[in-house]
Predict the structure.
Amino acid sequence: MKKESVHQQTLHELVQWLKTIGLVSLIALCIFVIIWLIPRPYHTRGFNTITDLQRYGSTIDEFIKMDNNNFNFPSYESYYQENFGPCLARTLRDKLNWPLYTLHLRQAPYFSASFFKTLLDDVTNYRKARGWQGDFIQKIEVKESSKLVIFGPVQGAYHGLVRYFEKLKELKIIDENLMVQRPDYYLIFLGNVVNRSPYTLEIFSILLELLKKNPENVIYLKGSQEYKENWKIHTLERELIYRAKNLSSSLIPLQDEIDEFFNTLPITLYCTIPFIKDTKLNYFKCAAFIDDDRYFELIDAPRYATFLKQKSSERLTTFDINHGSNNDPEAANIVSRAMVRDIKKRDSYEEMDGLRSLPPTKGIPTWSVLSTSAEPYRVGLKFFHDAFVIITPAHQLDNWGITLYNRDMRNKDDNSFKSRAYSFFGSTLEQQ
């Protein structure tokens, strides 16, 4: 009897132990299921001030090493895998943060892929509603009080662009909230903003934020990286696959939305100078580089002379280049004075510090600007400068200036920008 009692007690303890394990397992399973059913945080807001950009920049390394030696097609696969690759701990952390973000118990991140998508949708819809689609050019009328800030290819150089904004705030061209300070001030990007960096989504978002806040004062030209589907063979495609896969069912997440946005970018910006009293309308143009001979013919100004001469109440006006005519009756009444353009770097690059005077194009002064500190340019082209330029009009063409603002990244003891002014309509680097 005594042995039987001990046996029954042992069996009872085993049953109780199994029940406890089962209960704990059930509770753990329920908790796991609940956590798994919690949606990933979807942030519709992110960085929108210079301070936000600085704080986010302090959390990411500016100099991420490439995994290969191909400067035209750099790979950052190990960086993506380490920071955005499949990871159960990262997924659970994101989901557990969702209620904290929802209840405002934790500050939302400065950047997220969902923030990028929100901006992308908003800006694309606005631009489509304005009729900015397809093959088109845009025009602004320059005033004597205007300032035109021009950036060459930025190529995903997040930290460099933030430094530019800091300088532009100091110059009172933009404010802390990324708002252009005057209606006759313009920020012009000569295409190739994306790719060749591990931070393409971040810098893409900055441009979208600028366009959203300043739709008629920020002009983002379509460059070779934004043309057709060229972006899909570069780093933007890899970033989307790693960072936005939960936002889209496409093989390349958000590919249709990005193609749709790039279709709203102009080919060329014409800057007319109506305040100069002349028998002809003076103008200059800003052009991105697109490796397509057809566009070199289509952006020839005489095809749109009537459009260029028309007055408009809008600051930024648009013309479909397919409606241009080689027999425009006003073709003889306009005159080109200069050009600022991007060039194919690997074929025609020469050592520079941000601004280069090119051989004249059809007899007019031609300038090229480079504005990236991305590794393929530092290592591949030995370009070590943050750089942008500002064009300043004057009452007489001879007094117009183009000022280079740059800083040598190799000088660790001096982070300030230096400035150097040249004659904009001069035929060489003629310093003012």
Observations:
- The CA atoms of residues 406 and 418 lie 5 Å apart.
- The two ends are 112 Å apart (CA to CA).
- The chain has a mean pLDDT of 88.
